[in-house]
Amino acid sequence: MSTQRNVFGLRFSALIEILLGLVLLVVIDQVFAHGNMFWDVNPHPFWVIVILIAAQYGANEALMAAFACSVVYVMGGWPDRAEDVDVFTHYYEILLNPILWAAFGLAAGVFTERHLRKVVRLDTDLTESREREDTITKSYNFVKTRKEDLETQIAGRLTSSVQAYKAAKAIETLNPKDVLSGVEELVAAILNPRKFSVFTLSDNKLSATILHGWNQSDHYAQEFDSYSPLYQAVIGQQKTICAANQDQEVQLDRQGMLAGPITDAESGQMIGMLKVEMMDFVNMNLNTIETFKALCDWVGTSLKNAQNYQAVKQDSVINPEHNLMTYNFFKRQSDYLGSLAKRVGFDLSMVVVRLNNANKLNESDRLIVARQLSTSVKNALRSIDLAFEYQTTGEEYSILLPATSKQGANIVRDKIAKDLDKQLRQHGDSNFSYIVQAIHEAA
Predict the structure, then answer these.
(1) Which residue among 297, 313, 329 closes a domain?
(2) What is the dihedral angle through the alpha carbons of 280, 282, 287, 288, rounded to the nearest 10 degrees?
(3) Is the distance from CB of 440 to CB of 338 less than 8 angstroms?
(4) Does residue 225 form part of some domain?
(5) How confident is the model at residue 275 (pLDDT cuts 50, 70, 90)?
(6) Mind listing the pLDDT tens digit for each residue in 98-122?
């Protein structure tokens, strides 16, 4: 779009140049020449104005320059007609320059306009080419960015899927503590919330067990009693509530974005509550809410199975993890053998094996120690000797030795110590201490 000013279709800059050119040539004529508008000069200086205007602007401005030059030219006093020159020839000689200026200006201006149109067309084509180039570049960059974003999303989803699988495997354990640890990883991998928490139900009160992503500036409650609107909605009514719902937002009471009951799907027993305090807005959709509900059921089932297993294990005779008799059965068996020893009259001794550095060993290493103790008892002792858990923490174990004196128990202690030291060398520095006790000595 042109920004040049026009006067009657003529460019203003051309008129100014014509005027300045004429003023300059007239001043030169009046000061340095004869003051007759260069009648006796050939070629006439006004040709410079006509040629420059025609070459720069085109036909219309060239004709205007020829007209202006002609007006100034004829105003400069006409020369007298010689006696041997007829009138026609006299006027022809006077008007020859204005006619040539007009003819040349028109012809040269037409060629100039043709050239200018070509220049404009080329300039337009160049501009359009640059715009197409910019459009193609922007489109390429957009496609490249989208490609990289999609690759990142796919990689992120693949990573999340792998993490979710690992977390799902983690909650398949039968230890409630390990299940809770796996729950934290599972919720983080599947829902990807910034902050969430797991509450367990006890004595009509919800108490926080897992706080993920919380910091000191957060003021979320860590306990909810039965009078709390959140407790009544989640536990009392067994509802999954979402902050996107205006009525449910009141029940959440600025405590989060999502909250749902953790229940045992088979029995319907309430176990606790899963609550999401903060997550990205783009992740908050119907699919997320349905996934959240399924996750609550999944977590509830896993926790209930672990609790049931632990309850059954406590009442069982043998702990299946390491084939040692349980601590509960030790109490009954030691009382029974002690009474029987007193009644029948035989010696009853006990060897207590303590793992002194249990706090420095991980769960798997402690399990290996317990299994090896069970194996050592079977290999080195009699079939009537019994090995038990002496504590449920995996730090102490006991061996009941019926019909064995304290002196014989010392021999048993040495055999157990030697076998354990031999078998556990490759599993780190296991530090044991042994205590020999005589529960009953025959008279």
Answers:
(1) 313
(2) 0
(3) yes
(4) yes
(5) very high
(6) 888 888 888 888 888 888 888 889 9
